[in-house]
Amino acid sequence: MMSMPNKHIDQVNLNLLPPLVALLEERHVSRAAERLRLSQPAMSRALQQLRRSFGDELLVRGPDGYTLTPRAQRIRGQLATTVTHLERLFAPETFDAATAAQSFRLAVSDYTVSALGPALVRTILTQSPNATVTCEPLDEGIFEKLDAGTLDLLIYGRAAPDRYRSQHLFTDRFVCVVAAEHPLARGTSVSLTQYLRWPHLNIDFGQPGVDRVLQASGAARRTAVSMPYYVLGASVLPGTELVLTVPARLVPHFGNPAQTRVLPAPREFGDLHFYAVWHPRLDGDPSHRWLRDTVRTVAATTAPAG
User: Fold this and answer.
1) What is the mean pLDDT of residues 97-124?
2) Is the pTM of this model over 0.70?
3) What is the CATH architecture of 9-90?
4) Does the domain formed by 171-271 have CATH 1.10.540.10?
């Protein structure tokens, strides 16, 4: 009697699994060959290899055709479960937002929270009610967190390092906000010369686009007040000569518009571009694809008119 040697999975020819299933279910070499669109000699060779692998005849020819050996009958019973598991293993992954209890971790700026945050959170929780959303501020360690897998997505105001994936979300532009009684409020825009004439309320998060333009022109604005949050800035302006420079998308989130005036910033400042940024290992993850699609949709649908 042949005996099957102990084998590790890396010593097993998994290409023989489809012929094994077909042979044990059809109990006939020709029919098994037709089922897998193989020639009969190829199926006969597969049967010989299977017999050597299992140390058993598996199919025995009799007067009424082939019959399964006791070992083959046991294998056939085991295959019912094994093949089901393998099909699940190799099946495309899916993500059902409606039922998944997924945790989404994003790094966002004060600006992004104000401009997109409420709509994004509402959209995620409406479509995926069992989800958990965690937002944390952008800081110097955000890319290390992407590498470590403790962050899923950044919403970033400039191009990310090349080793990460990114997708452009939206474009914004700078505007200048002043008190309604400010001398600039009588105009329709702010030139660079006018911009430099007045004291500024600066948001500490940083405005590299503005700073680069000023540095290139050899000019510097005089910062009279610094604050860490955009949303507090407008409430400081009434009764002062301060100029607050913010992305236009934030303006609808300010307080009483009767107390302030919004003007286009110097054209030299150009546009602001914002990106979704993630680690390449998440490219094919279904839940992450859903998150990226959701962020992109919210960014597009919350864009201000004009």
Assistant:
1) 90
2) no
3) Orthogonal Bundle (1.10)
4) no
